Amino acid sequence: MSSLAPSRLSGRTALVTGSSRGVGQLVAEALARQGARVFVHGRTETACAATLARVVAASAGRADPVVVAANLAVPAEVEALADRVEALGGVDILYNNAAIMHPWRERIENHTQADWESSFQVNVFALVRLCARFVPAMRKRGWGRVVNVTSGIDKTPQLAGYGASKWAVDKFTDDLAAELKDTGVIVSRLDPGWLRTDMGGKQAPNDPETVLPGALVPVLLADDAPGGQFFRAQELRGANV
Ligand SMILES: NC(=O)c1ccc[n+]([C@@H]2O[C@H](COP(=O)([O-])OP(=O)(O)OC[C@H]3O[C@@H](n4cnc5c(N)ncnc54)[C@H](OP(=O)(O)O)[C@@H]3O)[C@@H](O)[C@H]2O)c1
């Protein structure tokens, strides 16, 4: 038993997709520090080992984290991921963070069908399916938080497939928020800002750690907060969560 006082997410369970590294790893650790039981996710269990160790330390014995591996590029693996998490008790918090970015394409003629298909499968279709699988139980319980990670990417035609996938995430989040009005399930968007992760690259202006505390704000919203809000982690660096 931990001697730590129960914190704001005690008794809550969270799935953070793409938490083997980068933003997801920091979010998983921060949720564990707030008392949540965390499902750590990546494509392989091996990839999740470092996050698991950090989450175990952050949990301080209050909740047992679990690793769940699935390649979100494969629709059957998305369903199997949801099956496994449901079998282990389901989630109150769905943090849809995993995403891929296709290679830089200088001109439109360089874009490939695969760029667009893979961007939409991982970044949009998997995210929609995970909402479809987990939101009904949240709704039944009258409490849930869904955070869909988006991007501030703009006027970057070289990454148009990625940019369009995030636009689709924004649109879907708006629509889902309308459906979930007054249900206790609050869905939000979070733009982490341009960060020095594997995806953001070394030239990014911000430390990955600057995603916190802002990334927790959409999870810790009051129960009467509106859905569909757009949070920008870099504008929330001083947030008191
Ligand atoms: N970094 C930035 O500057 C930036 C800016 C704006 C928005 N974002 C958004 O922030 C989120 C996190 O980005 P990040 O920078 O932390 O990315 P990252 O460092 O590249 O990490 C990506 C995460 O997603 C997982 N992932 C990738 N492809 C997957 C697949 N097919 N199936 C399952 N999991 C997969 C990875 O798991 P594995 O380890 O198993 O590969 C990893 O955990 C993304 O939604 C991204 O679009 C990032």
UniProtKB/TrEMBL annotation:
Give a yes or no for keyword Iron in this entry. no
Q: Which InterPro entries match?
A: NAD(P)-bd_dom_sf, SDR_fam
Query: Keywords in UniProt for this one?
Result: Oxidoreductase
Q: Note the superkingdom of the native organism.
A: Bacteria
Keyword Membrane carried by entry? no
- Listed GO molecular functions? oxidoreductase activity
Q: GO CC terms for this protein?
A: membrane
Q: Which family is annotated?
A: Belongs to the short-chain dehydrogenases/reductases (SDR) family.
Q: What's the protein called, per UniProt?
A: Short-chain dehydrogenase/reductase SDR
What is the protein's species of origin? Opitutus terrae (strain DSM 11246 / JCM 15787 / PB90-1)
